User: What shape does this take?
Amino acid sequence: MIDQHDKLEKRCPMLGHPIHFHYCRTTTKDTPCRKIMDCWFEQIPIQEFVKEHFTEEMITAMEQPPKPKMLSLIELIEKAKKSQE
Amino acid sequence: MSATKILLSEQDMPRQWYNLAADLPKPPLPPLGPDGNPVSPEMLAPVFPMNLIEQEVSTQRWIDIPEKVLEIYSMWRPSPLYRAKRLEALLDTPARIYFKNEGVSPAGSHKPNTAIAQAYYNKEFGIKRLTTETGAGQWGSALSFACALIGLECKVYMVRISFDQKPFRRLMMETWGGKCIPSPSTETNAGRQILEENPDTPGSLGIAISEAVEAAVSDPTGETRYSLGSVLNHVMLHQTIIGQETKKQLEIAGEKLPDVVIGCAGGGSNFAGLAFPFVLDKVNGAEIDIIPVEPSSCPTLTKAPFHYDFGDNAEMTPLMAMHSLGHKFVPPPIHAGGLRYHGMAPLVSHAVELGLMNPLALDQLECYEAALTFARTEGFISAPETSHAIAAAIREAKKAKEEGKEKVIVFNWSGHGLMDLTGYDAYMRGKLINYPLPEEDIAKSISVLENLPKAVIK
Assistant: This one.
């Protein structure tokens, strides 16, 4: 069951406060949080969980590292401009 | 009895920020766009005022701190420099250990040093409001505080789950007059699109950043800009007041230049704030060991090559010169969230490449142990990121004992950890493990850089 760990709680290093596992597996529409394996490997068999419930594409997307902020900003500026057109 | 706190008067506060870019023996390499050309200031103009962009690309050595900024700094600056006498006694070291306490600001960390400056320059440029994003609210509260004092509106897009679960930081922001909006919101196209697809979404930092940028870019009056609290050159510039005060305080304490300068290195701003003014002395011939500390589980400065790399796994963002384990690198577990980057701030990377700094990687157990030792001797409970600097200072003090040398060690105590005690809980309950990155993993990760241009400093 995909919701078996949902009520487990842990501090999120990105947000800076405790959250439930449910948030980690549903952070974005199609993929879990990219840090889900870093954060949860100590408490649950997270690799097996991810392999069981997510596709290869989702896992690949999840493993993307964070972008340097100035560079991601340029991308966001262009995206925001296009959304206003 | 020698002083424990070395204090400066407000009149002794430094009047200029120091720009390391002016004194590097070789100029920093520019970030490259997808087309291979340098990123231009105009590309950033929709989100930053030109006076801050000018600071971002400036090579002027000293930049005057405006009187208004100095006046606000004086509410908590100059921050005290402490002599860690009890820690020295415990370690039985001949070293003299000093730490710069940046936790005395109203927001509890070094972040207001740049929040105040950024708010000021935006106001000078004619901007009426700033936007930003926040999770638990540390940067959002620092910027709200700054906007209240400068006289700007502040709109903070706070991740919805944090908005619901962290009312105290939200209340801090609102107390300072910031408008805190749960993200995703109906105020932006990015937010509306997400809500349409999933009305019950708890949000994410990525969505909140998109909303904050869009709010700045789409304001038809042109009176809104976006604010960022880490990584960029102008952010590090504003933090250099830390190191300049420290120099004066060490002189009062009867010290000359320190032998060792230490800071934790993530986005780079708190490390740069203390270290960059001392790098100037090193460039001029002083013998100072300047140590950025990073986690051994995510080593960039200590293990990775200096190379042009993409900022992202999808290879969409511009190429940028940095110490990188490769854009496909996924860091293993570590609990000091602010230290997790696959590439270091370019200016710090460049200084390391020039041999001006000697990076050190430490594991998280050593860092938490050091933080506990520090709390039980000096009293202050440190932010997890700050604990890296403490651990390095303790190492250096032990080394001084072994060598029988009276070294002067100074580190940046960048903030308190009173809202971050769950990490301590995990450590004290034995729930943390170390994860040094295996050499084969590093080699595999770096292999993705082979077809990208090498960052050659001419």
Observations:
- The two ends of chain B are 52 Å apart (CA to CA).
